[in-house]
Amino acid sequence: MRILITGGAGFIGSHLAEYYLNKNEDVVVIDNLITGKKENLPEDPKLNFIKADINDNPKIDGPFDIIFHLASPASPKDYLDFPIETMTTGSIGTINTLEWARDFECRYIFASTSEVYGDPSVHPQDESYFGNVNPIGPRSVYDEAKRFGEAITSAYRRRYGLKTTIIRIFNTYGPRMKKTDGRAVPTFVEQAIKDKSITIFGDGSQTRSFCYIDDLIRAIIKISQIDHPGPVNLGNPTEYTILELAKLIIKLTNSKSKITYQSLPEDDPQRRCPDIKLAQSLIDWQPQVSLEDGLKRYVGWVKNI
Length: 305
Fold this sequence. Notes:
This protein has two domains: 2-173 and 211-237 and 274-283, NAD(P)-binding Rossmann-like Domain (Rossmann fold), CATH 3.40.50.720; 184-207 and 239-272 and 290-304, Alpha-Beta Complex (UDP-galactose 4-epimerase, domain 1), CATH 3.90.25. Helices cover 38% and strands 18% of the residues. The protein contains nine helices and 13 strands. A seven-stranded parallel beta sheet has the order 3-2-1-4-5-6-11, sandwiched between helices. Strands 7-10 form a two-stranded parallel sheet. Strands 8-13 form a two-stranded parallel sheet. Helix 5 (184-193) packs parallel to helix 7. It is globular, with a radius of gyration of 19 Å. The chain starts with a strand and ends with a helix.
């Protein structure tokens, strides 16, 4: 097989590239490195790294069996730092990569996000829920970029018969997350290891689900092996409050950190938890790594880098 991964130097993309390289497949990674790091990728003769911006429609030599379109700033800190780049990657970049899939007549996986559900009024969220999104709020640059990406991917499937699948990725954590990512897990772990105050936005009652990276990669691989248009939720359906997460990280790191509270950012969702019945029925998948076990692995990685 020959695989193309956009955003392949990022957190999720680098793990996906590593999976295929371990299977002795040929992997091409294209990344502009505004949020990814080339050091995330292994040295491997079967890996071809291209530093380029997909919005510029660089020339890519095929053929490919599958394209995974993962490119995009993904954490609130990153997409608020790069709002225009986030929107163009979800629109122009997605169109460019869909055209590559047409040219190479290959499979196409669009990595969407649970952010398309916004601040949901339905719990847990299944794929039929249309979401509750503020289209002009500060987070909208990511939400709406991914919603557009889903729409254009679906349009290409209908018009051109492309074998596309939309996956909606919920909160995922693990090695290679940036310490400065801004999301709860890397931020809390970094603060706890240094015995600094752990900063919670709001009162900590808001919930998230946390999927370990190995579980997510296993799901992405399995979904890529069937032809289903999606969207398909991929995430861990076990729900935790942010306060529970902070207390667990303090416990696992034997930290002296205290918890402090700050005001909640605009449009921050109160609850976020996937209904994964569709993934379970399509690919017989569910997460296997508990939050405690996954955090132990992640903390170990952080302490060793």
